[in-house]
Amino acid sequence: ETGVTQSPTHLIKTRGQQVTLRCSSQSGHNTVSWYQQALGQGPQFIFQYYREEENGRGNFPPRFSGLQFPNYSSELNVNALELDDSALYLCASSLRGPGPNEQFFGPGTRLTVL
Amino acid sequence: DAKTTQPTSMDCAEGRAANLPCNHSTISGNEYVYWYRQIHSQGPQYIIHGLKNNETNEMASLIITEDRKSSTLILPHATLRDTAVYYCINRGADGLTFGKGTHLIIQP
Lengths: 114, 108
Known about the structure:
The complex is a heterodimer of chains A (114) and B (108). Chain A has strands at residues 5-7, 10-13, 19-24, 31-37, 44-50, 53-57, 64-68, 74-78, 87-94, 104-105, 109-113. With 114 residues, chain A is mostly beta strands.
């Protein structure tokens, strides 16, 4: 069973640029969620994708967008980067179905905006 | 905003049971209580979840009060590798709402 993987591990961008982060979900999982974790804070929910559509969103502006592909992998895109976007970006996969379903997290991508 | 309240930090001696409390007085009837932990700079790791009954797995036990307004995560024999930030979460329909968690430090 392959766990959740994310790429790249680290990334440095400048203000105003755009960035794409990638996530491969755990084998058998059909749902991907993205989180932003600033230094010293808990992860904050950005959005979730299920069946290639956004299915729930946290308090993040539209310049945060995403995609989910038929193989359930996902991308997080952030446009017009701001200094405050510097954070650890976490992807989590789960299997959507009746009842509770735990989310399994990847190692994250550390984004630094200069 | 997180709907749970946890102590900022706790210490526990190695080999002892670590008991981590969590208050979730506004939890609704169909929300589960989830516990995750995050070891420095890694992704959060799922520990356990429950609805009403106490739960146990290979990592921990979860004790939920009868009124469901609070719970306790128990690590029965803490080791140095259990040093981490522990998050108590009430699970809604979509994403997990993390607070700041409890920084558990296991002392040798």
